[in-house]
């Protein structure tokens, strides 16, 4: 069965930040620091999904999706990240999963979608090797409660983005600015994935995946320096978090002045390279890079920007064929080592508001989805074993450092009231999903 779904993340939609025993996460801390999130927005209430989840499940059922990718709030289940369990947190996910199953929607649970418990960050976060072990303990706990009804588990969401924005550049929680010294956070996340995979399987999980953000990389020109810059960026963005999983080794990091990936110990790569039941791929846009100017650049590439394409409200170029290019390129690169692929996020932000007729006319999102679904079909026709596609996102939500200014949802949310309004794209996708030849 091909999985057609929508995706969300706990901190972005749940709200109820201080209810029923939930502990603080790094995003609770970060969003309350002045100047960190646009206009001082926080996820304290978000979409109030914690209280309104039955309505959201009804929206998914009416849409006609057969799967829902959500994330579990680590600090709602384990307020300190380890140790004492919060029963009310597990009870919430029990109710959500039961509601999904009753609606005929396959639950796909992500364990870590960037909201590390603050107590673990206080001990070093992903720079601390122990966090990998704590992820595995949390995975076992969640699976023991839910794996009888949740067939698909995703250990990590976009570890590349979390490392770069959270630990290298500081634009996301936890707000560290370590640049290349953030690389141990890459290895410890991957180690956590491997240990969590073992724990999930021991607890009865049927399918285990990891999800990363991937981007086709285009050199700005055919000049050798630009080609080398593109190769370096491809290594950092696409290969650093995939080669160890599928090939059992890190890529060559010499472009970054490193002889080997930092923080690796004997036996780690064997743990990381646990067999996968699928690979989650999040795609938003390609990246064009060029060689940096100057004699001693901090990185061996710089963003050259992409012009000549429509853009989202975020300013990201809309390049549907990039999805086909990405998926066929991964098949060419990894061959038989590439497991089945699930496109676990694909979507766009647009400045959506209801019109005078009460309808949210988001034609740009319809065009985006139509183009990317054509590209998905082309990748499948080219032999890529794609088994699922999830639209980001079901709801307009808290968009990290942008607060509530970027709307990705198929459903418009009036944040002061929480009122939901399905957009034109929701109704378009509903009709698409009814089409037999999809």
From TrEMBL:
Superkingdom of source: Bacteria
Keyword field contains Hydrolase: yes
EC numbers: 3.2.1.21
InterPro entries on file: GH, GH_1_N_CS, Glyco_hydro_1, Glyco_hydro_1_beta-glucosidase
GO molecular function, one term: beta-glucosidase activity
A single Gene Ontology CC term: cytosol
Enzymatic class: hydrolase
Pfam families: Glyco_hydro_1 (PF00232)
Binding sites annotated in the UniProt record for substrate: 12, 113, 157, 284, 392, 399-400
Reaction catalysed by this enzyme: Hydrolysis of terminal, non-reducing beta-D-glucosyl residues with release of beta-D-glucose
GO biological process: cellulose catabolic process
Keywords, sorted A to Z: Carbohydrate metabolism, Cellulose degradation, Glycosidase, Hydrolase, Polysaccharide degradation
Signal peptide start-end: none
Catalytic residues identified in the record: 158 (proton donor), 345 (nucleophile)
Family indicated by similarity: Belongs to the glycosyl hydrolase 1 family.
PANTHER family in UniProt: GLYCOSYL HYDROLASE, LP05116P
Protein's name in the database: Beta-glucosidase
């Amino acid at each position: 069965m091909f999985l057609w779904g929508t995706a969300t993340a706990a901190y972005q939609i749940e709200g109820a930040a201080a209810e029923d025993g939930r502990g603080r996460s790094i995003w609770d801390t970060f969003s309350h620091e002045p100047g960190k999130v646009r206009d001082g927005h926080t996820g304290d209430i978000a979409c109030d999904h914690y209280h309104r989840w039955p309505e959201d499940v009804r929206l998914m059922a009416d849409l006609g999706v057969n799967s829902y990718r959500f994330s579990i709030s680590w600090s709602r289940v384990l307020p300190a990240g380890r140790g004492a369990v919060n029963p009310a947190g597990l009870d919430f996910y029990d109710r959500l999963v039961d509601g999904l199953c009753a609606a005929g929607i396959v639950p796909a649970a992500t364990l870590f979608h960037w909201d590390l418990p603050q107590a673990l960050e206080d001990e070093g976060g992903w720079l601390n090797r122990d966090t990998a072990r704590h992820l595995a303990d949390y995975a076992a706990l969640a699976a023991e409660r839910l794996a009888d009804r949740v067939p698909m588990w995703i250990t990590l969401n976009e570890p590349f983005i979390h490392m770069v924005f959270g630990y290298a550049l500081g634009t996301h929680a936890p707000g560290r600015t370590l640049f290349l010294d953030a690389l141990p956070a890459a290895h410890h996340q991957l180690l956590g994935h491997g240990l969590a995979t073992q724990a999930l399987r021991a607890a009865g999980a049927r399918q285990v995946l990891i999800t990363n953000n991937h981007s086709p990389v285009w050199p700005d020109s055919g000049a050798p320096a630009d080609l080398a810059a593109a190769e370096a960026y491809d290594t950092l963005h696409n290969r650093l978090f995939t080669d160890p999983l599928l090939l059992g080794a890190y890529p060559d990091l010499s472009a970054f002045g490193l002889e080997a990936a930092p923080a690796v110990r004997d036996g780690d790569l064997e743990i990381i390279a646990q067999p996968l039941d699928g690979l989650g791929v999040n795609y938003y846009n390609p990246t064009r890079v060029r060689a940096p100017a100057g004699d001693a650049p901090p990185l061996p590439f710089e963003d050259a920007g992409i012009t000549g394409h429509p853009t989202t409200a975020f300013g990201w170029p809309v390049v549907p064929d990039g999805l086909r290019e990405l998926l066929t390129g991964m098949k060419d690169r990894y061959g038989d080592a590439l497991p089945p692929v699930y496109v676990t996020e694909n979507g766009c932000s647009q400045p959506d508001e209801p019109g005078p007729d009460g309808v949210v006319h988001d034609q740009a999102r319809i065009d985006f989805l139509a183009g990317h679904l054509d590209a998905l079909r082309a990748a499948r026709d080219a032999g890529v074993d794609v088994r699922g596609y999830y639209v980001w996102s079901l709801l307009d939500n808290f968009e990290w450092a942008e607060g509530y200014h970027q709307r990705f949802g198929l459903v418009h949310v009036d944040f002061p009231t929480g009122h939901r309004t399905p957009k034109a794209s929701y109704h378009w996708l509903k009709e698409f999903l009814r089409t037999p030849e999809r």
